[in-house]
Design goal:
The protein is globular, with a radius of gyration of 17 Å. Helix 1 (16-28) runs parallel beside helix 3, helix 1 (16-28) crosses helix 10 (201-210) and helix 8 packs across helix 9 (188-198). The protein is of the alpha+beta class and 227 residues long. The longest helix has 21 residues, at 134-154. It has two domains: 5-88, Glutaredoxin (3-Layer(aba) Sandwich), CATH 3.40.30.10; 95-209, Up-down Bundle (Glutathione S-transferase Yfyf (Class Pi), Chain A, domain 2), CATH 1.20.1050. The protein is built from ten helices and four strands.
Length: 227
């Protein structure tokens, strides 16, 4: 029997890496408790060492947080969830689709630095036109081409990359959020896919909570003055 799961996360307004496994578990109905450590807070300073072997979030704990078994790094957490819940279809069932889904996730996980830097996730804010540097737009074009090709080959009649919702879609939720904040021009296929992601139950719940947060983290706010 699977031990109770706890996901340690950061601020919902800023923490794109936390969003991915949180949304995947929520959308697929995997039960878990949430433990939030706000960035630059006393709670973070006092507890991050005990709750995260890497002092980063997210971390998935099986059993008592800080005492049970920890899986850290978003990609590793997703793979662990697939092991624990093989019936929840974390990845597409078809082996070729599954390989492509993992390829897309790994490609984004290790690249697209210009997009990440110029358009940090900031759900509660709106900065249309910011971050539209040529290198960023080139990365957006490359990413949306990957999306379009995956949907054309594996998407079927569904709204997601591989027909039904999977870890690949959870990976790109923060990207859809960034596009909503900074409003880069998107072709119709990319815009439709982002809309589908933002309308998922998990993303609506996460975004509602993010908009209530008031903390200001300077390194995640390149376009705003401190309050």
């Amino acid at each position: 029997m699977t031990q109770p799961l706890t996901l340690v996360i950061g601020n919902k307004n800023y923490s794109s890496w936390s969003l991915r496994p949180w949304a995947l578990m929520t959308e697929l109905g995997i039960p878990f408790a949430e433990r939030m450590l706000k960035f630059d807070s006393e709670d973070w300073d006092e507890n991050i060492a005990g709750l995260s072997p890497t002092r980063l979030v997210p971390v998935l704990w099986e059993g008592e947080p800080g005492q049970g078994f920890a899986t850290f790094d978003t990609s590793a957490i997703v793979e662990r969830l697939g092991d624990l819940y093989p019936d929840r279809r974390v990845w597409p069932a078809d082996d070729r689709a599954r390989a492509r889904a993992r390829s897309l996730v790994a490609t984004f996980h290790s690249g697209f630095a210009a997009l990440r830097s110029a358009m940090p996730m900031n759900i509660r804010s709106s900065y249309p036109g910011k971050g539209h540097e040529p290198e960023v737009m080139a990365e957006i074009d490359r990413l949306t081409t990957l999306w379009r090709d995956a949907r054309a080959e594996f998407g079927g009649e569904g709204s997601f990359l591989f027909d039904s919702y999977s870890a690949a879609d959870a990976c790109f939720l923060p990207v859809a959020s960034r596009f909503a904040t900074y409003e880069p021009p998107l072709d119709r296929d990319a815009a439709d896919y982002c809309r589908a992601l933002l309308e998922t139950k998990a993303m609506r719940e996460w975004s509602e909570a993010a908009r209530l947060e008031t903390e200001f983290v300077p390194e995640d706010e390149p376009y705003a003055d401190p309050p």
